[in-house]
Amino acid sequence: MIKEIIEIAKNAGDAILEIYKDADLSNVVDFKGDDSPLTLADNASNDVIVKALENQFPDIPVMSEEMAQAPYETRKNWSKFFCVDPLDGTKEFIKKNGEFTVNIALIENGLPVLGVIYVPVTDVTYAGSSAGAIKIEGDMEVKIQINNKSSERIAVRSKSHAAAEEEVLLEKYNVTDTISVGSSLKFCMVAEGKADIYYRHGPTMEWDTAAGQAVVQAAGGKVYQGDQENDLFTYNKENLLNGSFLVLGF
Q: For 126, 157, 186, 220, which has the most beta carbons within 10 A of its beta carbon?
């Protein structure tokens, strides 16, 4: 399945880039009820992904940020489903910094078992499954894994969502340096060992984290609820809003 999902993500990325490279189209920005931005590229990518998933995997329901959500009474019976963020990092798209992604994950029994993150501007793909985690650049495919460092750790932080609560946590985990990057690329940095920890205090939605969690876990890392190494992050909650989470590459 992962090859098919990668192809779908790349096709969605192509649709995004067509708009990204056209100033008249990329500058069209609307706002949702929660004041989060919505671009033509969000909708174009969503159309590509949802149609392809429904055609290729008709028995697996789809949950996407850019579509109406099934009621919980229906969703709670899903043993598996696709969790999709057609354009993660819309603010980065608007800023034109290239740090936005296409995220597609497969959730089984509340946990992500497969995830694909595609970076349209650089044509880089990260993918994770039971077979491990990989990074694809052009024709080069390499296995990736967490760093497992015990000291002088690097934390990756959000470009758009900083939190004072991070400081105490970073000291606890012997973090000596930080880097900033947008969207789900923060998960990818941990998965490939370029960073060791990512903590997010502010709210996210399930589609913001599902693919990233799959890639991190396939690379040997963990994603926990809150700021403690206790419960793993789970999906298909009645309320799709996530609480804080902690990503560890060790």
A: 126
CA 179/CA 154 separation, integer angstroms? 7
Same domain (yes/no): 160, 128: no
Tell me the DSSP string of 174-219.
TEEEEEEE-TTHHHHHHHTTS-SEEEE-S-EEHHHHHHHHHHHHHT
Is 20:66 a contact under the CB 8 Å cutoff?
Answer: no
Q: Tokens 């996210």 identify what position?
A: 204
**pLDDT tens across 92-145, in order?**
999 999 999 999 999 999 999 999 999 999 999 999 999 999 999 989 999 999
Contacts of 154 (CB under 8 A, 6+ apart): 175, 176, 177, 178, 179, 194, 195, 196, 197
Helices 40-56 and 2-20 pack at an angle, to 10 degrees, of: 160
Contact 36, 89 (CB under 8 A): no
Closest CA to 101 of 65, 129, 67, 69: 65
Q: How many domains is the chain built from? A: 2
User: Is the same domain home to 157 and 139?
Assistant: no
Give the model confidence (pLDDT) of 19-62 as tens digits.
999 999 998 999 887 778 899 999 999 999 999 999 999 999 99
pLDDT at 227: 84
Structure tokens belonging to residue 41: 């590229």
Q: Which helix (H) or strand (E) element contains residue 101?
A: strand 101-108
